[in-house]
């Protein structure tokens, strides 16, 4: 990030946080230059960016003013999914999303990719290339079944921050978080079993349940506090549920961090009903606040939490380096991994281990936390400008996803088809439900830099949404929102 | 390989093939030097290697003679497994084998690794490092669901040699052959289904069946001709078998290549009984003879053969690049891959694609075919020298594995435990049976160069086998061999 970009995102964040109100005059170029120790032209460039983003408006001879902006929209209410075990559907929509990845001219706002353009990531691919050259035997040979010991060692060090104390022998390296969840489910469940999930929840995991013939029950989930413990308890009393999948930290798609007392409550509920918790902590390190939140596993006393994660969001998904700390299921997870996936690529593991060891990981993640937080605030502001009234937007506590709930009449599956023609890809909400709920919602990836292309794309999304809403309203009278 | 090593393996092969008989005088150093256009000292070094390997003996002032060698042992007879569906066991033995990989001082004769020391492999890791440096965005980002198009394109070109005509869109890249088989089984089978396998057969695949809760029925298999079509037919009439897993080319562990008429017969049998064929062609490119054998899939007319393979044996297992041509099951395989494994590492795919495109693949595989064939012949000769009478040894038509059947009293599980103390790892035969048959057999990996360390290791294996045989004979009177 250049100096002026940095300043622009900082100012965007202040506007978003309401430090400067709509219509208020902004500090002069000279003032800001002195305050931030940057040149006049840097400030001018930053203001130009904000003007292009329509966050501020210039007024002849009197400087810049905060552009008019609607009030902060409310957060989505507790979700109300169908609460009985179902087979997961929605594969076609996901295929459409995955297929659109192939066309590199499509703006992938529906994807889960992190920002790969930051300079703090450079030592990673330098290390990767170094490993290949200096370590060809290890790089070309079969990996150990549990994965490279040096990487497992580094992961245990990282996990301390989340209150999770495990040894390197308690960890198994997997091919991404998907590989971790896959080994976990296969080790614990069999076809026909029922597994509970948050609702909405990550479509990849739900397709995995479908792949293994496991039934899914969606549990009401609050966009700030996470899964409803009460609803979960009711479901556990009513159905023979085998386990529950939770993304408790920087949830995908809702962005919440479950408060510690709820994490504790869910563990004791699991104990009482003797079920297993599959914890997916993939975004946990990207919490806005430091130190990062605790894992559910850090409250686990009898090894019933299988903690799954990966470096796909913190570093890069192309590494395919994930891991699992399977608690009491270690042996079964090792078998499941061997049986279904075999071993992993050694090269990327060694590169990540060196990247962590040499302090690059901490530096990179520290930067990304700030970048993503600023991005999400700017995107939220754009959404307020470009979207119709009556929407709800999440206020993520980390990660880089925004979840937007539109008036019930809007069908995002149709909207996203229109957007595909404009080479803009978004993730319609129905992908995040086992049974296709949340058709009026969408998830937007805010990881990408605050460029004018992105600004313009969001404006186009807003336009198509407006049109869809108008069409719907002429066809059917508006109903109360969900 | 240096010049003298090359000459040594060539001479070893001639001795093994019986061109020079036991006790016969070998050509003089001068003669060989002229014949091969190499220096006197190169020939002397080569003879020194052969002497160290005890293939030849020097006689003062009269030159070198072929060392006394026992007659060629017979090949193993048709196997006679238990012919009913069972749950696969033997995981403990496999874990022991996999665990011993961690100790780099152990000589891994039980592993499946190819020779990674050849110079023809160098362009591969140069390419890998180049991709990382010049293509960081692609390397770090999420892969396409089906894998990199350029690699799929190159694979279709390679497959032409095996009579298999598919397009790049018919191919899905997987994490090794294990990933391919896993997606194939998950796409077609559900727990409780029965799948037939050759007997003996690769333990990794059988553990996969166990992992998915699929029952296994082992079918009698001939060490030269492959699976018994008659026995398979009988089994199909008796049990509701869903599919059959075949390694028809350079079989692991038996080394046979199924003749074309049998390949055709198995396809029409599959049609008649409407079952699926999971074809594992991982060693198919390493057939001794050129051109390489046809795939079973090349006889398939209605898309019921799912062809699985990888570059783990031809190039390097640490790449984790495999693929599947799933015929009519393409959509289900894509879902199974997405659901259980996610996407793959782009870097190694791009490196392999470039390696093939630039002609390095053909060069490397051509060399490896010759190297492995020479190795296996030298190892066979050592086995004849060091092992007791009454053994059977396969005569592999490709790959790099030898399968040795010992007198029935020898328990290779115990022998391999003794060998582990000597830091020598072999694969006991029982790993290759669903129900622990073939305890009197072992598989030896002959991929590694003909070094004195390997020569000495085989001598030690022979010693422990002799001891085990003696112990067994003093305890129980010898029975007729299997
Ligand atoms: C919540 C969640 N879990 C798992 C995954 C899969 O991660 P990976 O790419 O490491 O397999 C994702 C990726 O989008 C995710 O958002
Ligand atoms: C017959 C057979 N199939 C599959 C595999 C697994 O291959 P990969 O390492 O590509 O997953 C092996 C490896 O030993 C094998 O011998």
TrEMBL record, chains A, B:
InterPro entries found in the cross-reference section: Aminotransferase_I/II_large, HTH_trans_reg/aminotransferase, PyrdxlP-dep_Trfase, PyrdxlP-dep_Trfase_major, PyrdxlP-dep_Trfase_small, Tscrpt_reg_HTH_GntR, WH-like_DNA-bd_sf, WH_DNA-bd_sf
This protein's record includes keyword Transcription: yes
Taxonomy, superkingdom: Bacteria
Family listed: In the C-terminal section; belongs to the class-I pyridoxal-phosphate-dependent aminotransferase family.
Cited PROSITE patterns: HTH_GNTR (PS50949)
Domain HTH gntR-type: 1-69
Record has Transcription regulation as a keyword: yes
GO molecular function terms noted in the UniProt entry: DNA binding; DNA-binding transcription factor activity; pyridoxal phosphate binding; transaminase activity
Keywords: Aminotransferase, DNA-binding, Pyridoxal phosphate, Transcription, Transcription regulation, Transferase
Entry protein name: GntR family transcriptional regulator
Signal peptide: none
């Amino acid at each position: 990030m250049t100096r002026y970009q940095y300043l622009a995102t900082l100012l965007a964040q202040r506007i978003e946080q309401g430090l400067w109100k709509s219509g208020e005059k902004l500090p002069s170029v000279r003032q800001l230059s002195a305050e931030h120790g940057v040149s006049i032209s840097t400030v001018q460039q930053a203001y130009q960016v904000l003007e292009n983003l329509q966050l501020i408006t210039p007024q002849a001879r009197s400087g810049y003013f905060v552009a008019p902006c609607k009030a902060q929209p409310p957060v989505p209410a507790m979700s109300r999914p169908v609460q009985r075990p179902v087979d997961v559907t929605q594969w076609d929509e996901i295929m459409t999303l995955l297929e659109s990845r192939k066309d590199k001219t499509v703006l992938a706002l529906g994807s889960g990719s992190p920002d790969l353009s930051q300079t703090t990531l450079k030592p990673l691919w330098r290390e990767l290339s170094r490993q290949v050259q200096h370590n060809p035997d290890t790089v070309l040979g079969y990996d150990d079944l549990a994965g490279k010991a040096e990487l497992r060692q580094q992961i245990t060090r990282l996990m301390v921050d989340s209150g999770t104390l495990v040894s390197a022998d308690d960890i198994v390296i997997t091919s991404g978080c998907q590989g971790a969840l896959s080994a976990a489910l296969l080790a614990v469940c069999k076809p026909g079993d029922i597994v509970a999930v948050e609702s909405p929840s990550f479509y990849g995991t739900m397709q995995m349940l479908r792949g293994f013939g496991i039934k899914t029950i969606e549990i009401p989930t609050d966009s700030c506090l996470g899964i409803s413990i009460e609803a979960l308890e009711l479901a556990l009393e009513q159905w023979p549920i085998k386990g529950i999948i939770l993304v408790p930290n920087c949830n995908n798609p809702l962005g919440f961090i479950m408060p510690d007392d709820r994490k504790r409550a869910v563990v004791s509920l699991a104990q009482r009903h003797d079920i297993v918790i599959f914890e997916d902590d993939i975004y946990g390190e990207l919490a806005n606040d430091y130190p990062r939140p605790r894992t559910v596993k850090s409250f686990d006393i009898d090894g019933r939490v299988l903690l799954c994660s990966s470096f796909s969001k913190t570093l890069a998904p192309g590494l395919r380096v994930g891991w699992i700390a399977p608690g009491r299921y270690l042996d079964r997870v090792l078998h499941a991994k061997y049986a279904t996936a075999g071993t992993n690529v050694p090269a990327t593991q060694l590169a990540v281990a060196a990247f962590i060891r040499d302090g690059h990981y901490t530096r990179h993640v520290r930067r990304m936390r700030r970048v993503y937080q600023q991005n999400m605030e700017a995107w939220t502001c754009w959404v307020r400008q470009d979207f119709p009234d009556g929407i709800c937007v999440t206020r993520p506590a980390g990660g880089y996803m925004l979840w937007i709930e539109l008036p019930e009449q809007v069908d995002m599956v149709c909207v996203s088809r229109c957007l595909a023609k404009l080479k803009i890809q978004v993730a319609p909400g129905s992908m995040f439900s086992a049974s296709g709920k949340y058709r009026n919602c969408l998830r937007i990836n805010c990881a990408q830099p605050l460029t004018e292309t992105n600004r313009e794309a969001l404006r186009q999304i807003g336009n198509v949404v407006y049109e869809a809403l108008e069409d719907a309203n002429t066809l059917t009278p508006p109903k109360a929102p969900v």
